[in-house]
Amino acid sequence: MHNSSFFFQRYGLTQNDLERYLGAALSAGGDYADLYFEYHTTTSVSVDESIVKSASRGISAGCGVRVISGERTGYAYTDDLAPEKIERAARTAALIASGPAKTPIVDLKEKQNRDLYPLALPSVDADVREKVELAMRADRAARAHDPRIREVRVGYADELRQILVIGSDGSFAEDSQPLARISVMCIGKNEGGQSSRGSAGGGGRVSLDFFKTEKTPEHFAEEAARQAIIQLDARDAPAGEMEVVLGPGWPGILLHEAIGHGLEADFNRKGTSAFTGLVGKRVASDKCTVVDNGTVPSRRGSLNVDDEGNRTNETVLIEKGILKAYLSDKLSSRLMGIPNTGNGRRESYEHIPMPRMTNTYMLAGQDSPEDVIKSVKRGVFAANFGGGQVDITNGKFVFSASEAYMIEDGKIGAPLKNCTLIGNGPDVLTRVSMVGNDLQLDEGVGTCGKDGQSVPVGVGIPTIKVDRITVGGTAR
Amino acid sequence: MELKEVATDVVERAMRAGATAAEAVAREGNEFSTVVRLGEVETLKESGAKVLGVRVFHGKRAASTYTSDFSAAGLGQLVSSAVSLARITSEDPESGLPQASELGKLDSDLDLYHQDVYSLSTEQRIEYARRAEKAATSADARIQNSEGGSFDAADGKKVLANSLGFVGEYKRSYCSVSAVPVAKDANGAMQRDFWYSVARSIKLLESPEEVGRVAAQRTLRRLGARKVKTSQVPVIFDPLVARSLLDSIAEAVNGDSIYRGASFLAGKLGEKVAGDNVTVIDDGTMPGGFGTSPFDSEGVKTRRTVVIDKGVLSSYLLNTYTAKKLTLHTTGNASRGLAGTPGIGVGNFYLEAGQRTPEQIIADVKEGLYVTEFLGFGVNLVTGDFSRGASGIWISGGRFAFPVEEITVAGNLKDMLNEVSEIGSDLEFRGSVAAPTIRIDGLTVAGE
């Protein structure tokens, strides 16, 4: 019994209450019901034109009730945690089923006992003035980097999400999930009047100390400023198919878009993914092993438990080029008869969970990054990316490079602008001919959107070479 | 307490706690959604929520807080925490509420709320979704799968109150029906597309059968898509795709990007930035419009603003803060979430229609691309650089020849605005941003 824990203490929840709510949820039958309690606090600070233009703080709390009956899901939520409101939400969600009432099994024994993000003091509770100082340091560092940096905007944002998930199958989990991030955006302008933009940021499930000791505001500021300055001299990207080298780290968004979404079990259960039916088949060159790993300590995409209360895992998606598994949640694992990989996630108590990625990355290979570049006669080196998108049904994915260079005769040349890459998920990795020994995870900025729900994620990749992909520039 | 009273109460509390000015925004709403897949209900969701945000000023310092806890203790904490945060932010000479003389609301009936979106029974709503999906899946033997038909309804009330005595509220309703069929060709390759109708009243919604029929047609025409050779050809944007171009223009005239020089249109007020045929309007006053409201998020009356007048940039979109920065006047486009400083949003933002039908425009193209979908985010508003993934239909001899995919369309927005060679007559609002079919020349289509 966890009467010392957050929700029990703050809202006076008892085992009796939880049994009653779940009983109401299963009052018209159904195979399974769960309650998701959430108490979410946020703070943010923004420094703009070298002054603190805004600071904010917020609280949202609520409970979502889900009832599953066969392939059907009923869902209702309340932002008022009074017992009668939760019970009413439970009765609304119950409308999805039609049968005799069932009795839930309520078990308040906690099964997960690890902590991937132990913090003495979550950053939301730290002094706001310290956050202001971090943001001001980033502002100063970006401006000091180069006189051509004209505008700097720094955001610091953190949150603490306390959750309690309890299912009618006896599942029970609580977690306290911190998240913090600094982001820096710079505008550069040269004497010729050309403007450019550079941005960088990072963080994770970390405390404020992380930004003082590990990744400082100066680190992110200089990175954003550096990118803006490089872009001032960028020329138009080429157009057409060519060799492309992806740099390590954030370019792992390729895996997220090209592979990851298509391997989410809901699409495969419905047969609407370009990867449907491909488990056991070759979808990548034998140099490629790709995992989704929710257990990397302190990472932005990591979770002790997913939003259905299951432990997260390291799941091998592609092993030496062969497709191994889909990412699943409770509903899809039950309906498809596959293991539950612990990837059931949701944006908040207002949302129905679904299979989502955590940290998705490719394992390191044997090649040195220098050799990868040297091997390219004429192509593009994409060092950094903005966002991407995929159509999971036909497999086409797009992502745009925010920092890219021409490679000619094995040497990195002029910076490029306007460089979008488009490819086909199920075959792009079959054209990976070299994989670097320099795996890096991104710095902790990724947010993934699916069906209108945003969740924090991570990506990673070593330097890789793709033999042929379409580069969408304008130059010949 | 009524939402209006809560908002005014919070403003008063903030003033008593030492704020020199305060503004509260409160929202309450209900949402319903259902998805029917392959004839069976897949999800049914129904709920309501309310939230409150407050922005307080301590002289020229500002801060904000929000909460979903409407208890006395919750509201007390909301206010005290905002007031104490406002002591640590910086003096910002341009910060503050609008001038009292700028506050106001449209008093005509804006036709934003119809009770009927919420009066349907659950069974009737499910039936809408079922009928839309059925119309799509029964259209052709190649459509055997689907991501479902859906029906959504929502209503909401928004209240704004400030310490200058402004109190306003309005209600809006919304409903939509959509279908997402999946088609498969003889080789097993799949394509998916969608169609939808959205309205403020059930009576104005297109029939689910029509929505399903169009969704099927849009999906089937993608089957057998292939890449094309890299080339420079005329590109026709269908209205949905042209709309995303208008989204980019809206961002580029956003006062926030303008004052910091983060837009390719910064400093271009009064200059020719587009062809003579291009007129772009933002109108927050259109009755029944999806972007219509009686006042903006700072309590300033909404209005009709000509943004680009026959190619000349005639106005930016501004709120109080950005207007002060640029020594202009607010255009009543303040838009705010619960926390932070107000941003800028559009009313009903559209490209004025031309004379010719889409069919006539297509018939003139010897070799070209008709784009039906953009993928990805390859638009840089600082430089105007544009490069996005696309799919669509190849045009040959003035007719649709074959579907294409895995290509990109690239150019620069500065040039694109001047190279709009055709604007269709088919302007239609399916959201707050709208555009007719357009043709742009000089773009690079990258493929093989």
Task: Give the DSSP E fraction of chain B (strand runs of 2 or more residues).
Answer: 35-45%
Percent of residues of chain A in beta strands?
35-45%
**Strand order within the widest sheet of chain A?**
3-2-1-4-5-6
Helix content of chain A: 10-25%
- The gyration radius over C-alpha positions of chain B equals 24 Å
* Class from helix and strand fractions of chain B: alpha+beta
**Quick check: average pLDDT of chain A?**
95
**Tally of helical segments of chain A:** 11
Q: How would you sum up the major sheet of chain B?
A: 7 strands, antiparallel
Oligomer: heterodimer
User: In total, how many beta strands of chain A?
Assistant: 24
Largest interface: A-B, 78 and 80 residues
How many β-strands of chain B, per DSSP? Answer: 20
Runs of chain B in which pLDDT lies below 50 for 5 or more consecutive residues are none
State the separation between the terminal residues of chain A, measured CA to CA: 68 Å
Average predicted confidence as pLDDT of chain B: 96
Give a short account of the largest sheet of chain A: 6 strands, antiparallel
Describe the structure.
The complex is a heterodimer of chains A (476) and B (448). Chain A has 476 residues and is α+β, with helices and mostly antiparallel strands. Among the domains of chain A are: 123-159 and 179-233, PmbA/TldD fold (2-Layer Sandwich); 239-472, no CATH class. Chain A has eleven helices and 24 strands. Chain A has helices at residues 6-11, 15-25, 83-93, 128-145, 209-213, 217-232, 253-260, 265-269, 330-336, 369-374, 425-428; strands at 32-48, 51-69, 72-78, 149-167, 172-189, 195-204, 235-236, 239-246, 290-293, 314-319, 322-323, 344-345, 354-355, 359-362, 378-390, 396-408, 411-417, 419-424, 432-435, 440-441, 447-450, 453-456, 458-461, 464-472. Chain A has a six-stranded antiparallel β-sheet with strand order 3-2-1-4-5-6. The longest helix of chain A is centred in the N-terminal third of the chain and has 18 residues, at 128-145. The radius of gyration of chain A is 24 Å and the shape is globular. The mean pLDDT of chain A is 95. Chain B has two domains: 3-220, PmbA/TldD fold (2-Layer Sandwich), CATH 3.30.2290.10; 225-448, no CATH class. The longest helix of chain B has 16 residues, at 122-137. Chain B has helices at 3-16, 72-85, 122-137, 208-220, 239-252, 255-259, 320-325, 358-363, 413-418, and strands at 21-37, 40-58, 61-67, 143-162, 167-184, 190-192, 195-199, 231-237, 280-283, 304-309, 312-313, 334-335, 343-344, 348-351, 367-375, 385-396, 399-412, 420-423, 433-434, 438-446. The radius of gyration of chain B is 24 Å and the shape is globular. Chain B is built from nine helices and 20 strands. In chain B, strand 2 and strand 3 (61-67) form a beta hairpin. Helix content of chain B is 21%, strand content 37%. In chain B, strands 1, 2, 3, 4, 5, 6 and 7 form a seven-stranded antiparallel β-sheet that branches. A five-stranded mixed beta barrel of chain B has the order 8-15-16-17-20. Chain B has a five-stranded mixed β-sheet with strand order 11-10-9-14-19, with helices on one face. Chain B is of the alpha+beta class. In chain B, helix 3 (122-137) packs parallel to helix 4 (208-220).
